[in-house]
Amino acid sequence: YGWFKCKVTDDGSGWRLTKVTGSQRTTGRFFDDNEKRAIYLGSFSVNDDKPKVYGSGPESDQVGYAFRNSAGEWRIEFPAPYYESKLDIMEFKR
């Protein structure tokens, strides 16, 4: 896949991610785990379908570890996603 647009915002209670382009979307929240990684809990959706809240079930729930690669790069590793693969990796660049 190529690069898609996303938004990372601070809603006052922590960092939130929304992938806003592409057919496969995610929206969710980051939780601090340690100095080198965060935990991402989110919800998978397709196209412009309204995302379900996290905890709605295995078809939409996403759990991953977010790692900072450099000052302007992050990645989230999603082990055992419900659809298509054994490991999904989503990379982010500023």
Describe the structure in your own words.
There is one protein chain. The model has no long low-confidence stretch (mean pLDDT 94). Helix content is 0%, strand content 56%. 19% of the residues are buried. It has strands spanning 6-10, 15-19, 24-32, 37-46, 61-70, 73-79, 87-93. The chain is mostly beta strands. Strands 1-2-3-4-5-6-7 form a seven-stranded antiparallel sheet, with no helix packed on it. The chain has one domain (6-93). The two termini are 17 Å apart. The chain contains no helices and seven strands.
Amount of beta strand: over 45%
Tally of alpha and pi helices: 0
Largest sheet: 7 strands, antiparallel
Give the neighbour order of strands across the main sheet: 1-2-3-4-5-6-7
Number of strands: 7
**How widely separated are the two ends?**
17 Å
Shape: globular
Q: How much helical structure, as a percent, in the residues?
A: under 10%
Which H/E pattern describes the elements? EEEEEEE
What is the averaged pLDDT score?
94
Low-confidence stretches: none
Radius of gyration: 13 Å
Structural class: mainly beta
Tally of individual domains: 1
Describe the secondary-structure layout.
Blueprint: E1 6-10, E2 15-19, E3 24-32, E4 37-46, E5 61-70, E6 73-79, E7 87-93
Antiparallel strand pairs: 1-2, 2-3, 3-4, 4-5, 5-6, 6-7
